Amino acid sequence: xxxxxxxxxxxxxxxxxxxxxxxxxxxxxxxxxxxxxxxxxxxxxxxxxxxxxxxxxxxxxxxxxxxxxxxxxxxxxxxxxxxxxxxxxxxxxxxxxxxxxxxxxxxxxxxxxxxxxxxxxxxxxxxxxxxxxxxxxxxxxxxxxxxxxxxxxxxxxxxxxxxxxxxxxxxxxxxxxxxxxxxxxxxxxxxxxxxxxxxxxxxxxxxxxxxxxxxxxxxxxxxxxxxxxxxxxxxxxxxxxxxxxxxxxxxxxxxxxxxxxxxxxxxxxxxxxxxxxxxxxxxxxxxxxxxxxxxxxxxxxxxxxxxxxxxxxxxxxxxxxxxxxxxxxxxxxxxxxxxxxxxxxxxxxxxxxxxxxxxxxxxxxxxxxxxxxxxxxxxxxxxxxxxxxxxxxxxxxxxxxxxxxxxxxxxxxxxxxxxxxxxxxxxxxxxxxxxxxxxxxxxxxxxxxxxxxxxxxxxx
Length: 460
What we know:
The protein is 25% helix and 3% strand. The protein is mainly alpha-helical.
């Protein structure tokens, strides 16, 4: 694959912000060759020359300030490009002892993430949902201004129909959607003080010239190598191409994928779980985690890329939370600082993650507060019916509901969409038996399913 710089206008990456992802001590291994995710798992011969450069960069710990951390350290290919440990936040920095502030998301299935925008829900998303969706905090979002000045990047725009009744932030990378591309997402951790912790962009540039100068010049020309911003931008492009071309980042090889293709049958418990997942009066999970094939036959990504304020309880395991005045408010910061982050209706909103491979995760939600799918599902159905089971009590013995979001932003929390529309003392939308069934279904979303090993007969 031959590329010329003047045929592609890449954004010049400022590398000025910090990223949400932390890092685990030690370097992760490259993908195990015997995993059933895809026949090409770990095989770089099929990748373009640019993607092969991205592969080298992805696994290179010398690009970090500590010399011990690569992209793969946090985004372990043997755990679907998510952390392999159970830390709520990961450790990085010059000495691998600086904690992050959010749980590290998987890099799998990021390829189809749209740029950040604010507007009405797309017709395609609505068509793919189990039932029409009532947006979280619709009243607050409806008061957002029609026009927004100072977009996050040149690609971040307000949709033309943004004067619709429900304005929804959607798209972008990271939990807060603060960058628009895989290129930018790949580069930000390099100077994050609690990740790869290079001193600045100049330090990154020096390492790239020393370790990859010949490769960069061969692919993009000597003129690029002589320009710091262009060199860094092309490296971001190479990392993005690796994630796009390497099949293991988006294999669509779960049992549920086989089921949708008519090549596997769900068990009774899995089928019950799927029905509860779709039922707008029960789990209603599919209203945000889209689970139907598109009209053109594309597999679902199990996210609508939209933002929600859920009111997850505060996680004392995050060191930053030791400060009672500190809050992570998602779009409103602390990692995002732009026009959108200054709008109160966005405070507490975090992007809806994909549920693909969710059963292989060790912590859940942006703050890693839960460690099992059962507890996550229980949170959704008991948050408002039995808040004493979800939140701690304050010094006066009162349940500290929504304790990880300042009071002035708690009106943004979704209390409209099922199953979070129930009131105190109402019966939860799911009982314990139904929660078990939903979790059984969620386990069908793990890539690497082999019908032969499972012994399940094909549906057709």
